[in-house]
TrEMBL record, chain A:
Residues 10-19 have a biased composition (Basic and acidic residues). Belongs to the ABC-4 integral membrane protein family. It is a multi-pass membrane protein. Its main location: membrane. Residues 48-232 form the MacB-like periplasmic core domain. Pfam families: FtsX (PF02687), MacB_PCD (PF12704). It comes from the Bacteria. Residues 298-410 form the ABC3 transporter permease C-terminal domain. It is found in: Cell membrane. Keywords: Cell membrane, Membrane, Transmembrane, Transmembrane helix. The chain crosses the membrane at residues 47-67, 294-319, 347-371, 377-400. This is ABC transporter permease.
UniProtKB/TrEMBL annotation, chain B:
Residues 236-245 have a biased composition (Basic residues). The keyword Nucleotide-binding applies. Residues 2-237 form the ABC transporter domain. This is Peptide ABC transporter ATP-binding protein. InterPro entries: AAA+_ATPase, ABC_transporter-like_ATP-bd, ABC_transporter-like_CS, ABC_transpr_LolD-like, MacB-like_ATP-bd, P-loop_NTPase. Gene3D superfamilies: P-loop containing nucleotide triphosphate hydrolases (3.40.50.300). SUPFAM superfamilies: P-loop containing nucleoside triphosphate hydrolases. One of its GO terms (molecular function) is ATP binding. It comes from Streptosporangium pseudovulgare.
Length: 417, 245
């Protein structure tokens, strides 16, 4: 009985018992949405621009998180391919700062540690400089170091050959060299063949192979690798290994790490450096994440500025639409319905921007990941968080203008032409 | 339908827009509130339309004591009980005539399909059945005001308030609009028209002349036109309570 039926003209006479008055009808959600969107439709350019402010903020946040996650996923992929069970043992330095020397039997000793699955070694041949030809001045070494390498070095460090072949039982006794990726570039060597030769320690060596970059043993990238026997017989190598590469069972890695130094050089274990190259990759990633945090902060500031933009648009919208507000009040809108209308408009505006921003952010992530050859990862929490942030921003930005609109007196609002 | 008793309205700053006005308008009347600008007729319309509350005095609209209703119930009363027509139409730009009229029913709790159906019927009644899809800028001034009138009466409110409905129109369009208002009144709606145009007022069955916030005797008839007037003498009276249009 509260809501007078339209078209029902017969009413009680005035002066009779007080009736509580009609109760406002609830607006249906589709109507709320439609009325909220109407304000945006009438000024599409302005809506688009203020949504763009939010979009840039969300895109920055999603892009930063996405690119960082994609790079993390790439690292995980690489680590699972390379393995995290590689430990390297380097000769290190003596207390006096001189290059330390590992005992000749270090390899054999390390191999006897229980969980160790494989050991390989490289020995630095200090005297053997590498040149493209005999014509190159002696000083231009190009920073390339010559290492004597065991034939199982390749599989132990997880390196791959880009061109040609790796050293084998036969070639390790002959003047044959395999170049690291950087070394090959510095020497200007693209391919391999019988007539591709470089000068190592004054002797011509045939380049039989070129390696891909080795993520877990970056020192090999700028190395010229020759066979252990030929290094001893031709280059004057003393046979002391400089670096040992060991693969161990993942479960025993800690134990191996603890005893490696004492095993490799029992007389001077303090000289030995033991490292886990995969840790270095992870550390690099962690360092990158600090930067990601900074970028995320910049994205958050952009988002905040976008929110201020939406608030500004809404305030102007309320000022411009006083007549509309007055009309709606005359048509029977309650204060609450006016408030809801402007709040809905503000929410729609920022969700529009948020959705667009999430798409842009995901697109940027996908593009960059594709360019770097990474897997594309946009975490669901980032997308959900972005959407939640836009809703909060929309609500906060719209609250003040909406309350202001609802407090306008209908007569005052209608008086503005 | 409308009953004002000693209604005063004083604005902050001390301007008295209405001074102890008493007025009775019965169901089915067609009334002109006429006076020069500043006479308080617009304030009167706002108070009758429950858009504003009086400083003192009692206002009863459709049986409800307005001063006793909270704002949201007044809004509901406007949504279903009162139709407004404004001098400057107040149509939404870029929105078809049909949707402009349907929006007038937005706060009455009807579904959209039903709102549009009633809007089409109201536009048909206003003689704009061929203009449903036209936007305000494609319509003449007279047509726009007809759309605004259709919006005001689409929900069949018992009371229609028109503020200078012909003020922005040429005389031909104005005549058409007045004819439409008369027709609505003839079908049972109580119509109150605010105007400063004596000619228009003279053509209506009852006039309430105002000056300086008071209801004054009708200079044309010499009679008091407020509470004591011989009300209900107009043709609209015959149709009072005749039901739906």
């Amino acid at each position: 009985m509260a809501v007078p039926a339209p078209g029902h003209a017969a009413r009680p006479d005035p002066g009779h018992a007080e009736r509580p008055g009609p109760v406002p009808a609830r607006m249906r959600p589709p109507d709320v949405m439609r009325v909220g969107a109407a304000g945006l439709r009438t000024r599409p350019a302005r809506a688009l621009l203020s949504a763009l402010g939010i979009a840039i903020g969300i895109a920055a946040v999603i892009g930063v998180v996405g690119i960082s996650s994609s790079s993390g996923a790439e690292l995980d992929r690489r680590l699972s391919a390379l393995g995290t069970n590689l430990l390297t043992v380097s000769a290190g330095r003596t207390l006096l700062g001189e290059e330390a020397e590992m005992p000749l039997e270090a390899e054999a000793m390390v191999e006897r540690i229980g969980p160790v699955e494989s050991v390989s070694a490289a020995g630095y041949v200090e005297t053997a400089k590498v040149y493209r030809s005999e014509e190159v001045p002696e000083a231009q070494t190009g920073g390339i170091s010559t290492y004597a390498a065991r034939t199982d070095l390749l599989t132990t460090v997880g390196a791959t050959v880009r061109n040609g072949t790796w050293l084998n039982e036969a070639t390790q006794r002959h003047p044959a060299v395999v170049l690291g990726a950087t070394a090959a570039r510095r020497l200007g060597i693209g391919g391999t063949g019988p007539d591709t030769q470089v000068v190592v320690g004054g002797v011509r060596f045939t380049v039989v192979g070129v390696l891909d970059p080795v993520p877990l043993a970056a020192e090999l990238d700028s190395a010229a690798l020759v066979g252990w026997p030929v290094a001893e017989s031709v280059l004057g190598f003393d046979g002391h290994p400089t670096i040992l590469y060991t693969r161990s069972a993942e479960s025993g890695l800690e134990d191996v790490s603890a005893v490696l130094a004492a095993t490799a050089n029992p007389r001077a274990p303090n000289e030995i450096d033991v490292s886990r190259p995969s840790d270095a990759l992870v550390a690099k990633q962690v360092a990158g994440q600090a930067f990601t945090g900074l970028l995320l902060g910049v994205g958050a500031v952009a988002l905040l500025v976008g929110g201020v933009g939406v608030a500004n648009t809404m305030v102007i919208s309320v000022l411009e639409r006083r007549a509309e507000i007055g009309l709606r009040r005359a048509l029977g809108a309650t204060r609450g319905q006016i408030r809801t209308q402007f709040l809905t408009e503000s929410l729609l505006l920022s969700v529009l921007g948020g959705t667009g921003g999430a798409l842009i952010g995901a697109g940027v992530t996908a593009g960059y990941a594709l360019y770097r050859g990474w897997p594309t990862v946009v975490p669901a929490w980032a997308a959900a968080g972005g959407l939640a942030a836009t809703l909060v921003i929309g609500a906060l930005a719209g609250l003040y203008p909406a309350v202001r609109a609802s407090r306008l007196s209908p007569t005052e609002a209608l008086a503005t032409p | 339908m409308i009953s004002l008793t000693d209604v005063s309205k004083t604005y902050p700053g001390g301007v008295t827009a209405l001074a102890a006005v008493s007025l009775e308008i019965a169901r089915g009347e067609l009334v002109a509130i006429v006076g020069p600008s500043g006479s308080g007729k617009s304030t009167m319309l706002n108070i009758i339309g429950t858009l504003d509350r009086p400083t003192s005095g009692e206002v009863r609209i459709d049986g409800y004591d307005v001063s006793k209703l909270p704002d949201r119930r007044l809004a509901a009363l406007r949504a279903t009980g009162i139709g407004f027509v404004f001098q400057h139409f107040h149509l939404a730009p870029g929105v078809s005539a049909l949707d402009n009229v349907a929006d007038g029913l937005l706060y009455g709790g009807l579904r959209r399909a039903e709102r549009r159906r009633r809007a089409a019927a109201a536009l048909e009644r206003a003689g704009l059945g061929h203009r449903l899809g036209h936007e305000p800028h494609e319509l003449s001034g007279g047509e726009r005001q007809r759309v605004a009138i259709a919006r005001a009466v689409a929900g069949d409110p018992p009371l229609l308030l028109a503020d200078e409905p012909t003020g922005a129109l040429d005389s031909v369009s104005g005549t058409g609009v007045m004819e439409l208002l008369r027709a609505l009144n003839a079908s049972g709606t109580t119509v109150v028209i605010i105007t400063h145009d004596r000619e228009i007022a003279a053509a209506l069955p009852r006039r309430v002349p105002m000056r300086d916030g008071r209801v004054v005797p009708d200079p044309d008839t010499g009679h008091r036109t407020g509470r004591d007037a011989d009300r209900g003498a107009g043709p609209g009276r015959r149709h009072a309570g005749s039901g739906a249009m």
